[in-house]
Amino acid sequence: MNSPFYITNIILYPEVAFTGDTTTDFMLDPHNADALRAKVLITEATFLDESYSVDHARQHGHTHLFEIMENSQWIRNKAVVLTHFSSRYSIEDIHLAVSKLQSKVSAKVVPLTQGFKSIYR
């Protein structure tokens, strides 16, 4: 006798969300709220410090880490993977900047530096 198939869990949010190369406008758009509730959010953090302004990042279609910090209250992900760092930074710069973000975001923040090429290498 075959037992019937039952759905026992209904998941109303995505497992993984990927923003691609974008500004932080996606965080403020209500249509993207599910991305900020996905288990894992993969997003860019091209600029990390004062050497490039938020306006510079926006003019070039990128996200500045300061903007992620500023909008951290919307991030409900269990993990946030940061990508697309400017090659002007070293891996050490990236890890230092991410440690500052971790205190603002309750999610686990991980910089994806595998294959990253810095001009300082």
Structure description:
The protein has 121 residues and is α/β, with parallel strands linked by helices. The protein has one domain (16-111): Metallo-beta-lactamase, Chain A. Helix content is 23%, strand content 14%. The chain contains four helices and four strands, in the order E-H-E-H-H-E-H-E. It has helices at residues 25-28, 54-59, 65-70, 91-102, and strands spanning 16-18, 40-44, 79-83, 108-111. It has a four-stranded parallel β-sheet. The protein is elongated, with a radius of gyration of 17 Å. The chain starts with 15 loop residues before the first strand and ends in a 10-residue tail after the last strand. The model has no long low-confidence stretch (mean pLDDT 88).
Write the layout of secondary structure elements.
Layout: E1 16-18, H1 25-28, E2 40-44, H2 54-59, H3 65-70, E3 79-83, H4 91-102, E4 108-111
Parallel strand pairs: 1-2, 2-3, 3-4
Structural class: alpha/beta
Secondary structure tally, helices: 4
Return the string of H and E elements.
EHEHHEHE
- What assembly state would you assign to the polypeptide chains in this entry? single chain
Summarize the structure.
The protein has 121 residues and is of the alpha/beta class. It has helices spanning 25-28, 54-59, 65-70, 91-102; strands at 16-18, 40-44, 79-83, 108-111.
What would the keywords be for this entry?
single chain, 121 residues, alpha/beta, Metallo-beta-lactamase, Chain A, four-stranded parallel beta sheet, 4 helices, elongated, endonuclease, Mitochondrial 3'-tRNA processing endonuclease Trz2
